[in-house]
Amino acid sequence: MTNPNTDFDTPWKDVLEIYFEDFVSFFFPQAHLAANRNPFATVVMAHLQALETRQNRKKRKEAKLALTKRLYEQGYQREDIINLFKFIDWLMSLPAELEQEFQQELNQYEEEKRMPYITSVERMGMEKGMIQKARESVIDALEIRFENVPSELVDEISQVKDTSLLKNLHRQAITLDSISDFQDYLNQLIKPE
């Protein structure tokens, strides 16, 4: 039997054993999530990274690449990787130039690891689908707020191919006071140089 007067570290060991995971998750959420194999941890990490890199697109590209590589390294099934990637790709949209860099770096990684779970054809299809969904979201927001959306405006929105620009337009569709304000904003963004 241990003498309670000389057993100083057992209470600390007990506390660590009971509360260590809670401690790490509270004070070091990124590290806690990174150690977790649950797909939801990846979703939360993507959200946190999207918030953290909102103002720095270069950092966002790096974070998106790290999260995508993590999908492979966690050993998820092909279908899970594709679905999680779709979410990450939607949440962490990049300007066209950085998206192209991301694609090149991801292709290189896939070739090195021999893991092309997301083929370039699938990726292009997903991108087209995401662009179409983003366009529809902008138009839907305008229709909900202002009811009648001129067909010329719908045509202009349908020409936009940049997901980050469409995301921005969606925000403006929700916040601007009138359809003409939205039209002016769109014209400023896409006016020919």
TrEMBL record:
It comes from Microcystis aeruginosa NIES-2519. This is DUF4351 domain-containing protein.
